[in-house]
Amino acid sequence: MRRLHSLPNYYGWHGAILAFLPAMLVLTLWVITHPILIERQLADFFPAEQFERDADRILLMADVRRVAEGIDSAVAAGALSAEDAIALNTDADNVRARLGEVGVALGADVTAEVLQASQRYRELASTGGLFRAIATIIVALGGLAYAIKITAADLRARNRVESVVLGVLMMASTIAVLTTIGIVISMLSETIRFSTMYPFADFLFGLTWSPTFQGVSQLGLLPLLWGTFYISIVAMLVAVPTGLFTAIYLAEYASPRVRSVVKPLIEVIAGIPTVVFGLFALVTVGPFLRDYIAEPSGLGTSGSSVMTAGIVIGILNVPFISSLADDIMNAVPQALRDGSYGLGATKSETIRQVILPAALPGIVGAILLAASRAIGETMIVTMGAGAAAKLDLNPFEAMTTITVKIVSQLTGDGEFNSPETLVAFALGMTLFVITLGLNIFALWVVRKYREQYE
Amino acid sequence: MDDQLIVERAVSAQDIKITARGVQVYYGDKHALKDVNVDILTNTVTAFIGPSGCGKSTFLRCLNRMNDTVAIARVEGDIRIDGEDIYDKRVDPVQLRAKVGMVFQKPNPFPKSIYDNVAYGPKIHGLARGKAELDEIVEQSLRKAALWDEVKDRLKESGTGLSGGQQQRLCIARAIATGPEVLLMDEPCSALDPIATAQVEELIDELHEKFSVVIVTHSMQQAARVSQKTAFFHLGSLVEYGNTSKIFTNPDDPRTESYITGRIG
Fold it and tell me: Are residues A84 and A223 in the same domain?
């Protein structure tokens, strides 16, 4: 066995990787570039000025693709023979009706150009498909042949496989980073577009939120920002003490048996969909607060209120905080507890003066994560706090948040060309900046107060 | 030097600080400590030696009821400090531990400043009235622990930033600050390098003038260097207890002799 550099299965993996990776690469490149090449080929069928406008070209290409796919599926279903399909023409046949028979619905009648273009598209796609398969197979076989050629007893197959593993892991981590960058860029470009249509200062400092679709909207951010913060603050006032006390009980006081029952039960809350929490807010918490607190004290008559949404979001975040804080407190070394007990401290003195300070960075991190969640929560706010954008101090008034307004500005409208829809991106950007700021603050706190136990 | 020790021994032999009679400890089903009887003297360093798992740390932890914090531990028998039964229902273990300080195997300073580490005990027990008095306690404790000169200019810095030996002396200062009468040390030098060990041993030698010191150690040289009385534990029993010089030169029990000469352990 020692004559081989690596275990036999590494040589196998090495061959498989060499056959698979380059072939995958060719296939991916082909899939990306092929539609672009086809589009160029089809330019001849249409008037040049029509094809140069982005929006029109995209629509035309969508039509062509639908017709081509429709004909293909008609052939596949046996409604058309292959020859008939090629012989289709707009003068003799009603293409839309014939495709309708096999279940392909088209939005409008097919023009001669589109039909011709889609016939060409079918040709190109089928030859392209053939070439694609051939090229991929050749590259795969080539890779395999190369692997076989270089495989020898002293080939460092183990190290080569290791570097592929490294590559895969690195790619996985890059995806998250690239996604974030992509999100920021798309949000930023739409936000800039919004700022060309609507004065950005009015957006940032406006006190009124009243979008209309007749052109004279007031899109002030402040009422939404206030609603977001107000609801989040109420939520954190509920979640932080409850979650932290739960964690202290579980980590320091509860017997292992109690802990093994209570902890999973609390974590069940985290698994409930937020829309179910929304229902709870709508039918239970809201009416209760209205009937027993708001109305008797004359503070309001609405079941939807900041309190309703805040309390329910707070409950939602309890297991999040308690579970994280419990893990963090368990990680505080037993030696610190012993040291404190050995000096004659009681349990709660030990927790307050030794364990909580030692666990503080982690606990702050958990709280800020929970705050990000509270700020981003949408469903419970929609159902519990209503949709009225208001600047008000009364916690029993209905208010709304940034996320809810993002949803309502985009619902039922597919075109992003008015300030009323584009404002959603500006709102999203605002939200992104707020949560980013929170996370940076969390990192800073963790760095500043981190304590080495050793 | 030797003469002095003999003189001290003659004086302190009069005062018994801790008496233990028929002490049994169980961890769950395991009978960890069997029928231990011992008298620990005032102003004396008493060393507990023996192989690993022999029960010496277990017995040490009985003396300030630290075993109470272990859920499965059960202690039977009679342990008295100054004639008072420390397992009596009226005795608050929290108060007891202020009177019987403890230093652990691994230095475990709190992640706080040096000052706050030492002030921790006095604060929770309300020993100081006002800042000036607290400052005084902190300084005195650090002086007694032979650490004052090294840290007096950086009391606000974190205790975890000190070297291992300094950390252990900080833990000793922390234990002294509550004004204990007995100091329990559970292998206080096992995580330290030889120089730090020498410093801590020197400190222990000074401390026994004011406290009764009980030290658990794996190192027989250390026991011989710092203690006046030695107890040898084996398999959960107290085999032999007597003057250190006698244990190390002329033990009564053959098991003690085997351990001292390195045949068991």
Answer: no
Task: Give the number of A-B residue pairs with CB atoms closer than 8 Å.
Answer: 76
Query: Tens digit of pLDDT for each residue in B109-123?
Result: 998 899 999 999 999
In terms of Cβ atoms closer than 10 Å to its own Cβ (0-12, 13-18, 19+), residue B132 is: exposed
Domain shared by A267 and A372, yes or no:
yes
Task: Answer whether A69's CB lies under 8 Å from A126's CB.
Answer: no
Asked whether residue A173 is assigned to any structural domain, the reply reads: no
pLDDT at A323 over 80: yes
Report CB contact under 8 Å: A344, B111. no
Q: How many angstroms separate the CA atoms of A391 and A383, rounded?
A: 19
Query: Are B110 and A339 an interchain contact pair (Cβ–Cβ within 8 Å)?
Result: yes
| Secondary structure (3-state) at B258 | helix
In whole angstroms, give the CA distance from residue A7 to residue A181: 41
A232 and A135 co-located in one domain:
no
Residue A56's domain spans which residues? Answer: 8-155
Q: Do A335 and B71 touch (CB under 8 A)?
A: no
Q: What percent of the residues of chain A are helix, what percent strand, and what percent coil, each to the nearest 5?
A: 75, 0, 25
**H runs (alpha helix) in A249-285:** 256-271, 274-280
Q: Does residue A12 fall inside a structural domain?
A: yes
Q: Do the chains contact at B94 and A340, CB–CB below 8 Å?
A: no
Q: Which residues of B touch A336 (CB under 8 A)?
A: 108, 110-111
Least confident of A53-57, A296-300, B6-10, B12-16: B6-10
Task: For residue A343, list chain B residues with Cβ-Cβ distance below 8 A.
Answer: 97-98, 101-102, 120-121, 124, 174-175, 178
Contact B94 A333 (CB under 8 A): no
Confidence of residue A77 (pLDDT cuts 50, 70, 90): confident
Task: Give B117 to chain A, closest Cα distance, Å.
Answer: 10
Per-residue model confidence as pLDDT tens digits over A190-225: 899 888 888 888 888 888 888 876 667 788 889 999
ipTM: 0.85
Q: What's the token pair of residue A322? A: 């308690």
pLDDT digit string (tens) for B73-115?
889 999 999 888 999 888 888 889 989 999 998 899 998 899 9
Q: What is the rounded CA–CA span in Å between residue A441 and residue A226?
A: 20
Query: Could you tell me if residue A424 is inside a domain?
Result: yes
Does position B10 have pLDDT exceeding 70, yes or no? no
Its CATH class, for the domain covering B43-61+89-260, is: alpha beta
Min Cα distance B136 → chain A (Å) is 19
Of A74, A42, A34, A71, which Cα lies nearest the Cα of A58? A42
Strand B212-216 versus strand B45-49 pairing type: parallel
Answer yes or no: do A336 and B71 touch at CB < 8 A.
Answer: no
pTM: predicted TM-score of the whole model, two decimal places: 0.75
d(CA B204, CA B198): 10
Closest-CA distance, B108 to chain A, in angstroms, reads 6
Query: For residue A92, what pLDDT is reported?
Result: 63
Note whether residue A189 is domain-resident: no
